[in-house]
């Protein structure tokens, strides 16, 4: 089978790998679609993502969907032909005390397309992938594999929104309208927010946020600024330099949910308003099982299609990564077509 494999910085290849055989408790999925995430771009650009550094070649991709084609021994209730996406996380070992089911905070997780552990955990940017049956999430009626590949990032957005509590009737600011920020817009509207304001530097990103439900947009750096005194703010840019203005936009006594990944090394940031405005600053990391909620939301009518700006064949994975990495390309979610049947 063919797979998109990163070998080092700037070096992604379409390699021929052995077709997988399902082991005990596994199925084999014929992959249809894969969405490119910022971590995939980082592995390709830098040979690592955060603290995870490539030691061996790695099959990229954790936003995937396809159809079951083979069922291994010990698997029941799953038939060939079933359309599925995949929960990409598999915790390793016992969880520390006190997590209360928050499996996303487990210290050791095998995540699709991740070099965090060694040997690395290959992802799903391949024609086939063997997967433990417990990680399958069947697609509901009306949700095809093209949209099913976006259940993972929508799950990230729904988890972030859930960290803020009940959004019914509230006004929300989302700073950063990249793929996750735009999905936070959609998730906030889905969860009942009355007004959602999206802010970004780029007009194409703001247009996508509009199409995903933003009631108002602010183009920063073009004569517009963040609004004032918003009770609930989601910071989705991950830019330390933006934190000062985002904290100032948050109302006194308000809440800021940090969903954009901040750097793992020291970076300057103006944080004084965190104290003087008594802001509650909440982190949000991946998701527990909100990928299942994401599928239900899409079944119920949440349309993620505006997020998809580009599609490429698997053979053109390098070009797809370059477009996803280029903020001037107007790209938001870039999809790889992983099979001719997709």
From TrEMBL:
Residues 179-296 form the Alcohol dehydrogenase-like C-terminal domain. Its cofactor is Zn(2+). Pfam families: ADH_N, ADH_zinc_N. The keyword Protein biosynthesis does not apply. It comes from the Bacteria. Residues 23-141 form the Alcohol dehydrogenase-like N-terminal domain. CDD domains: idonate-5-DH (cd08232). The keyword rRNA-binding does not apply. Keywords: Metal-binding, Oxidoreductase, Zinc. Belongs to the zinc-containing alcohol dehydrogenase family. PANTHER family: SORBITOL DEHYDROGENASE (PTHR43161:SF9). This is L-idonate 5-dehydrogenase. It comes from Amycolatopsis acididurans. The lineage of its organism: Bacteria, Bacillati, Actinomycetota, Actinomycetes, Pseudonocardiales.
């Amino acid at each position: 089978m063919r797979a998109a494999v990163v070998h080092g910085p700037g070096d992604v290849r379409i390699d021929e790998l052995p077709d997988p055989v399902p082991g005990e408790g596994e199925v084999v999925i014929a992959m249809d679609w894969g969405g490119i995430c910022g971590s995939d771009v980082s592995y390709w650009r830098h040979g690592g993502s955060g603290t995870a550094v490539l030691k061996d070649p790695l099959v990229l991709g954790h936003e995937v969907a396809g159809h079951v084609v083979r069922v291994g021994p010990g698997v029941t209730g799953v038939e060939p032909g079933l359309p599925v996406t995949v929960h990409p996380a598999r915790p390793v070992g016992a969880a520390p005390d006190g997590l209360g089911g928050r499996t996303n905070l487990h210290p050791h997780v095998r995540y699709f397309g991740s070099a965090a552990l060694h040997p690395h955990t290959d992802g799903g940017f391949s024609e086939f992938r063997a997967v433990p049956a417990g990680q399958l999430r069947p697609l509901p009626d009306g949700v095809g594999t093209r949209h099913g590949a976006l259940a993972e990032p929508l799950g990230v957005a729904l988890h972030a929104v859930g960290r803020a509590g009940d959004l019914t009737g509230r006004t929300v600011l989302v700073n950063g309208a990249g793929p996750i920020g735009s999905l936070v817009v959609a998730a906030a509207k889905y969860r009942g927010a009355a007004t959602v304001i999206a802010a970004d530097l780029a007009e194409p990103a703001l247009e996508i946020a509009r199409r995903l439900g933003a009631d108002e947009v602010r183009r920063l750096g073009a004569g517009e600024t963040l609004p004032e005194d918003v009770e609930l703010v989601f910071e989705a840019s991950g830019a330390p330099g933006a934190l000062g203005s985002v904290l100032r936009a948050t109302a006194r006594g308000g809440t800021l949910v940090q969903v954009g990944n901040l750097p793992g090394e020291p970076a300057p940031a103006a944080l004084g308003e965190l104290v003087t405005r008594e802001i509650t600053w909440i982190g949000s990391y991946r998701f527990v099982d909100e990928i299942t909620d994401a599928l239900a939301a899409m079944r119920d009518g949440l349309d993620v299609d505006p997020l998809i700006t580009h599609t490429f064949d698997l053979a053109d994975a390098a070009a797809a990564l370059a477009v996803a990495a280029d903020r001037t390309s107007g790209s938001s979610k870039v999809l790889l077509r992983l099979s001719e049947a997709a």
